[in-house]
Specification:
This protein has 604 residues and is an alpha/beta fold. The protein is built from 22 helices and 17 strands. It has three domains: 234 residues, P-loop containing nucleotide triphosphate hydrolases (Rossmann fold, 3-Layer(aba) Sandwich); 194 residues, Rossmann fold; 45 residues, no CATH class. The strands form four sheets. The chain has a six-stranded mixed beta sheet, with helices on both faces. It has a five-stranded parallel beta sheet with strand order 2-5-6-1-7. It has a four-stranded mixed beta sheet with strand order 8-9-11-10. The longest helix is centred in the middle third of the chain and has 28 residues.
């Protein structure tokens, strides 16, 4: 027990971060804990802690598999062993890293940088091994259903301890000699883990523990059976680690943050749910007397009429006056997923994956016909290997023209993102334009990070204007956004026509380019190109023209104020006519892991 009390000194190369250290030890004690996602910003020691864990595995004599960032699909899933194939004259297959990792620890640094399809391969097989991975939330995220596959999630913090920092600096010369640095402490830990083996299978579990586990998971608004299973095994491992013969309810509470932190919903959802419960309770308690029914109904009708009149007046006054709103809340927008196509491009960026002719792209596969004639040497050799005995090979490999294979590569590309913004008076209701500008600036910053070009079109009164032609300058876009006015009627069809003309003009000059159209509007068209035309029908017709452009992805952001007697849901029809994805303005915020980090509790 003396050793447990000095537990903070484990992995002494890393200062502090007790929850992360504890999670690693619990996975060693009980592999069914389900692995760990080590999350943290740059410089918090994620990669270093992973190296320390490798040192511990080596000392304990446990084998593990590392999956490097530049891994190929063949290395991951398996392929032909060229040397043995040439020697025997038949195809000999070699296991991939995922197959080799069965029953072992699989270690991955910077999991967020792996392609989505590779993550699918990894998590499809994650039940066969214990996955320990690191992730930097500032650089990228992984999908919630991937997060749920991890038994535990921990958050690394940059702990500033002057004495320990000085100690590490003095030892920096031998810092990478992990076999000697703090070797005595690691050996002490291994001896302690050996002693703990006597507790495995002997921990007594009372019936109330199951209720405690379910209650703890539901209390945190987590809906996942994996959470319940992993919480049980983590609590069990914690009891073993403490040298106890009983699994106590307090242990479940102590390790719950490790299992639930990466599965929690946003805190706002919890608050909204609680508020709804409170409202329902109040409604049940309030029972109006029968003598007051008629009086209450009359008051409701009179005050309702006044409220409608007031709303109508607010709407009319905001539509008739021009105003410039401030930029509202800035946030990290959610990730939009766009389809991949088969066009081979020379465009670079950071948004969508595309096949590329440029050097430096990620190798996908060997193909018979290469569009850029970039020879895949190993693919060619692998294809020729089975025929060497038949071809009479003596000392050199015999390669025929039909053996040639070429590299098919991909890399991320940028898009042109066109923002079509509704500047009409209806956007001034309840300062809606302030929120729209905040969302728009957030999307512009996302475009800058993804190396997109941007363009800005606004429609209001009886005109539509390209206020910002396609550019890579976010600063210029910001200056235009600040002074965007609001007021007047809604010439939506004119804005769409201006957008259609811009798309066609840009596509003629850049035929390989992908374009994203983001429409921010409530969809209330009330001005047509010609006075005698129906503005709604005109809007539908122009939307049909844009829908037919297969190189354009469409996103419609509904800016209408909801829960309102004037809600018309016209933006949904607009999304249907354009064949685009529909979002409410409030839905643009990302399911951000950083918000979950703020909820982490230190285990003491």
């Amino acid at each position: 027990m003396n050793f447990f009390q000095s537990f903070e000194n484990l992995f002494p190369e890393v200062i502090g971060n007790l929850p992360a250290k504890l999670a690693l030890i619990l996975n060693l004690i009980e592999p069914r804990c389900g692995g760990i996602l080590i999350c943290g910003k740059k410089g918090t020691g994620k990669s270093l802690l992973l190296k320390c864990f490798k040192k511990l595995l080596n000392l304990k004599g446990l084998s593990y598999i590392e999956i490097p960032l530049g891994v190929t699909e063949e290395a991951l899933l398996g392929g032909i062993d060229i040397e043995k194939t040439i020697e025997k004259g038949v195809r000999i297959y070699e296991k991939g890293l995922l197959e080799k990792g069965k029953g072992k620890f699989v270690l991955i640094d910077d999991l967020h940088l792996f392609p989505e399809e590779y993550l699918s391969f990894i998590f499809e097989n994650s039940e066969n091994f214990n996955l320990i991975a690191t992730l930097n939330p500032e650089e990228g995220f992984i999908s919630p259903h991937f997060l749920d596959r991890f038994g535990m999630g921990v958050v690394m913090e940059n702990v500033k301890d002057i004495k320990k920092n000085l100690e590490l600096l003095r030892l920096y010369e031998n810092f990478y000699n992990f076999e000697e640095l703090y070797l005595e402490r690691y050996q002490t830990l291994l001896k302690y883990l050996e002693i703990l083996k006597i507790f495995r299978g002997k921990i007594k579990i009372v019936e109330s523990i199951w209720d405690k586990i379910v209650e703890t998971v539901l209390k945190e608004f987590v809906i996942s059976h994996r959470a319940e299973v992993f919480l049980f095994y983590t609590s069990l491992a914690y009891a073993i680690f403490r040298g106890e013969l009983y699994l106590k309810e307090s242990y479940v509470e102590e390790v719950a943050p490790l299992v639930l932190i990466h599965r929690k919903r946003e805190i706002e959802e919890k608050q909204n749910f609680q508020r709804e419960e409170e409202r329902e309770k109040e409604n049940k308690e309030e029972k109006p007397r029968s003598s007051q029914k008629s009086h209450n109904f009359e008051n409701k009708e009179r005050y309702g009429s006044q409220n409608i009149s007031q709303k109508m007046f607010d709407l009319w006054s905001s539509a008739s006056q021009e105003k410039i709103f401030d930029i509202g809340e800035i946030f990290k927008p959610k990730r939009f997923i766009f389809r991949k196509d088969k066009i081979v491009r020379k465009i670079i960026g950071k948004r969508t994956k595309s096949k590329t002719k440029l050097r430096g792209g990620r190798f996908l596969r060997s193909v018979i016909f290469g569009k850029d004639k970039d020879l895949d040497f190993f693919g060619t050799l692998r294809n020729a290997a089975p025929f060497q005995i038949l071809r009479g090979r003596k000392d050199r490999v015999i390669i025929y023209k039909e053996d040639f294979r070429y590299k098919e590569k991909e890399r991320k590309m940028g898009h042109l993102v066109i923002f079509l913004v509704d500047g009409s008076g209806s956007m001034g209701v309840q300062k809606r334009m302030e929120a729209v500008k905040g969302a728009l600036f957030s999307l512009l910053m996302d475009c800058y990070q993804k190396r997109d070009k941007v363009s800005l079109i606004i429609f209001r009164k009886a005109q539509a204007e390209v206020v910002l032609p396609p550019t890579s300058s976010v600063e210029l876009a910001y200056q235009k956004l600040k002074v965007l006015p609001t007021g007047g009627k809604t010439p939506l069809s004119l804005g769409l026509l201006e957008t259609y003309n811009l798309i066609k003009k840009f596509h003629r000059k850049h035929p390989e380019a992908r374009i994203i159209l983001i429409v921010l509007s409530d969809g209330k068209a009330n001005v047509a190109l010609k006075p005698e035309k129906d503005p709604i029908e005109e809007t539908r017709r122009i939307c049909g023209e844009i829908k037919g452009l297969d190189y354009v992805d469409k996103i419609i952001v509904d800016c209408e104020v909801k829960n309102n007697f004037l809600s018309m849901e016209l933006a949904k029809s607009l999304a249907e006519w354009l064949g685009g994805k529909y979002f409410l303005l409030e839905e643009l915020k990302a399911e951000n892991l950083k918000n979950l980090i703020l909820q982490v509790k230190q285990i003491t």
